[in-house]
């Protein structure tokens, strides 16, 4: 059986990581990807984060990973006839600025759409194709600052500059969103212009619904930067990662470390605040323990834990070795991660060698290229008619199903009264308050348009209704640990017995097999294990955890895998099991570390706010008291090439220090980064953030305010694109809600069509569809099988 996207032709007019990763995921799914390049080739061919010498014709190691299985055609920007011929034979085009070819006026996405209205076009740009910021300079680093992601969920330390998330993670996130949403558009008939904003992708991937939180609760999620406790800690023989995502896990950590006296179930302090009170003693205990001993203890106590991965050690971790996560690059022989998901019984394309520059030019010049059938009536809501049983909780799983709901699917969010969705419980609202469980801004941000049904699976009646719900659904998505699904008897074979063509998406933290399969996993533990934490923070201390990327990154990769499975079902009538583990997705967006070490022997290191893309690149303090009364206001500046450096020098007024000839090249600037930082810091400090931005940005220098995440609505570009929509919730009140990082040429006009559901709000509607009448509903509620309030004292014992 050929891969699901066999016969789907994509013209790749992108350059860089975001477009490269998007089209890699499409090629892995079986698409024919024709990479059309200027004569000098994609700039990524010349890239190495460690500065290794690379062959610009063959391309370096990262290019070899991202361009595997693609074809390369060289086109002259002065003669677009060959490109036009390819566009006429394609199903889709992926475009980004950054090359002479793509920036030719006739290849702007709007112009392509005029000539090819039946073509699906995905445009990946920093801010979107239109709006007041559409032509402003940006790098992944400055986009993090604008997004609020440089501050994250209180990441860092208050006494030093905020620290961005390393590894160019925003580019990888943008590519993952582009792939998933390109396939979503395809499911609705294609022929859309999909306008993706990398800024908006970073907001969704690096922050945690901060605007909704702020507007509903009248306070920001965090007001200070502080390291996670325990987070990434020093043990006697290396680094170990431990996390406490719930009160019970904090209590268990207290017991595990021999400090039961720290347990205070009556405290009004949050878990984070309690942990910080005892940080020094906890870290002192860990420094005397071996990594494996700590992990064995933590696993026994069911506390999330992992080793701390990097480019050197992650390929040797027993779990990844046993699961065969890493594979050999077919062209250059280095080590790279395999597919970010597994589809049982569905072939994904095995990696094929990346092409040399122009390797397929002559082939396509001579080839007969049939024009595919076109449609000019795509559905604004591509998933209308698709019924999804959403057995997920917290962030990773609901972020996947939320996109389905925003794009038209009927999504039934399954909870129980003893165990409602965990995000209902993290708003910090006292249980004495009316409807406290309905007032979580995080739950609201993740679950608009969904329906809520409560079922207690610990009862036979609940399990019977669950089986009937499954039989009535097209898709089931779950993100429990594997042992929980095993205990429920809901493995794929059991689910398929209820509906033969069902697609089941399982989203365990560490996969369905391997020694870590039953370990609990939160976003930060996934980040630690995969290497995302390793590159985040300062070299003089343990890494900071991004504390965000692991969950939404898993959700968007799961959506891509689901799209592939649904396409397989459309072609064959067969259902599928999708295994979309969080860590496999994280290892793919952290791939560059493994690739650089395997190909060049270079272990990438965290550098604070410096990075391989730009020099200078840093966060500088400016004048101004922030909203919390602190002298704590910052800007981000990044100079990615010589042209931007000259623009910076001119904007600064040509100071003598900046005119030194040794600073005219990137290598010279990188070698003298300390000196440049000192000069820029001195220039920025007496000026306001607005003054710095208004001086540098119009000159073409990538610059940004380091935004507090809850201030995202103040950005003019987001307002222009309608990224936030006003949602009225019957219990939580009104607030702005983020949408998707895309604008589609045919709509929809609105993504949030209904607020997040009340607990069990749709029990009668959904169960009634299964034949459950009013008397039976009343009996189920009396027995505690269903309900509309959390069962704080435990479910009433069932009589069935």
TrEMBL record:
Gene3D superfamilies: Crotonobetainyl-coa:carnitine coa-transferase, domain 1, formyl-coa transferase, domain 3
Keyword Transferase among UniProt keywords: yes
A Pfam family of this chain: CoA_transf_3
Enzyme Commission (EC) number: 2.8.3.16
Main enzyme class: transferase
Keywords: Transferase
Gene Ontology terms for molecular function: formyl-CoA transferase activity
Cell membrane among keywords: no
Protein name: L-carnitine dehydratase/bile acid-inducible protein F
Annotated source species: Mycolicibacterium chitae
Classification of source organism: Bacteria, Bacillati, Actinomycetota, Actinomycetes, Mycobacteriales
């Amino acid at each position: 059986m050929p891969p699901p996207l066999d016969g789907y032709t994509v013209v790749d007019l992108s350059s860089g990581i975001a477009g490269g990763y998007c089209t890699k995921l499409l090629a892995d799914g079986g698409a024919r990807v024709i990479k059309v390049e200027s004569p000098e080739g994609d700039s990524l061919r010349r890239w190495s984060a460690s500065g290794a010498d690379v062959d610009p014709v063959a391309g370096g190691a990262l290019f070899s990973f991202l361009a595997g299985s693609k074809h390369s055609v060289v086109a002259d920007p002065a003669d677009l006839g060959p490109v036009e011929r390819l566009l006429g034979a394609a199903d889709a085009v992926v475009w980004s600025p950054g090359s002479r070819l793509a920036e030719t006026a006739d290849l702007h996405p709007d112009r392509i759409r005029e000539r090819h209205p039946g073509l699906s076009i995905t445009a990946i740009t920093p801010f979107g194709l239109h709006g007041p910021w559409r032509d402003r300079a940006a790098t992944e680093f400055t986009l993090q600052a604008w997004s609020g992601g440089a501050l994250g969920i209180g990441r860092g330390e208050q006494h030093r500059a905020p620290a961005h998330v390393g590894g160019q993670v925003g580019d990888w996130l943008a590519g993952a969103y582009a792939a998933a949403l390109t396939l979503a558009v395809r499911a609705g008939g294609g022929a859309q212009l999909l306008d993706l904003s990398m800024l908006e992708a970073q907001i969704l991937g690096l922050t945690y619904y901060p605007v909704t939180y702020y507007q509903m609760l009248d306070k920001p999620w965090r007001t200070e930067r502080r390291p996670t406790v325990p987070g990434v800690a020093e043990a006697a023989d290396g680094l170990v990662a431990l996390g406490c995502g719930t009160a019970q896990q904090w209590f268990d950590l207290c017991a595990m470390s021999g400090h039961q006296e720290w347990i205070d179930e009556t405290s009004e302090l949050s878990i984070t605040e309690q942990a910080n009170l005892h940080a020094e003693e906890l870290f002192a205990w860990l420094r005397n323990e071996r990594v494996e001993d700590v992990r064995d203890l933590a696993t026994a106590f069911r506390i999330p834990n992992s080793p701390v991965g990097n480019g050197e050690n992650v390929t040797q971790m027993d779990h990844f070795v046993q699961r065969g996560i890493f594979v050999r690059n077919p062209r250059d022989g280095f080590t790279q991660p395999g597919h970010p998901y597994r589809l049982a019984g569905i072939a994904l394309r095995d990696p094929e060698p990346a092409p040399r520059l122009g390797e397929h030019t002559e082939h396509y010049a001579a080839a007969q290229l049939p024009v595919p059938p076109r449609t000019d009536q795509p559905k604004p809501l591509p998933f209308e008619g698709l019924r999804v049983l959403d057995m997920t909780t917290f962030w990773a799983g609901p972020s996947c199903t939320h996109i389905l709901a925003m794009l038209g699917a009927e999504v039934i969010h399954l909870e129980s009264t003893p165990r409602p969705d965990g995000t209902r419980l993290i708003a910090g609202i006292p249980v004495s308050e009316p409807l406290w469980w309905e007032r979580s801004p995080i739950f609201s941000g993740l679950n608009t348009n969904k329906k809520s049904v409560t079922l207690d699976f610990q009862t036979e009646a609940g399990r019977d209704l669950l089986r009937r719900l499954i039989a009535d659904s097209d898709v089931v998505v779950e993100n429990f640990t594997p042992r929980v699904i095993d205990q429920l008897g809901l493995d794929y074979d059991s689910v398929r017995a209820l509906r033969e063509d069902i697609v089941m998406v399982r989203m365990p933290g560490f996969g369905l097999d391997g020694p870590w399969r039953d370990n609990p996993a939160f976003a930060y533990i996934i980040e630690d294990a995969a290497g995302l934490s390793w590159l985040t923070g300062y070299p003089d201390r343990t890494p900071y955890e991004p504390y965000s990327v692991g969950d939404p990154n898993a959700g968007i990769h799961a959506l891509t895998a689901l799209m592939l499975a649904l396409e397989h079902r459309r072609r064959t009538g067969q259902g599928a099991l999708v295994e979309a583990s969080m860590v496999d997705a994280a290892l793919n967006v952290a791939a560059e570390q493994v690739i650089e070490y395997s190909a060049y022997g270079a272990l990438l290191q965290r550098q604070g706010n410096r990075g391989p893309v730009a020099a200078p690149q840093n966060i500088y303090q400016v004048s101004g008291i922030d909203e919390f009364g602190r002298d704590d206001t910052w800007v981000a500046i990044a100079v990615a090439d010589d042209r931007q450096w000259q623009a910076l020098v001119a904007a600064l007024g040509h100071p003598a220090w900046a005119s030194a000839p040794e600073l005219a090249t990137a290598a010279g600037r990188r070698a003298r980064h300390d000196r440049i930082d000192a000069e820029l810091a001195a220039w920025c400090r007496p000026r306001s953030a607005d003054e710095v931005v208004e001086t540098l940005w119009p000159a073409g220098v990538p610059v940004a305010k380091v935004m507090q995440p809850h201030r995202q609505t103040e950005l003019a570009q987001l307002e222009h694109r309608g990224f936030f929509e006003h949602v009225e919730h019957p219990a939580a009140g009104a607030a702005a809600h983020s949408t998707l990082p895309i604008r589609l040429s045919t709509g929809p006009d609105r993504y949030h069509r209904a607020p997040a559901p009340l607990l069990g709000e749709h029990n009668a509607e959904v169960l009634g569809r299964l034949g459950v009448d009013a008397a039976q509903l009343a009996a189920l509620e009396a027995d505690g099988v269903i309900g509309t309030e959390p069962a704080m004292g435990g479910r009433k014992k069932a009589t069935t």
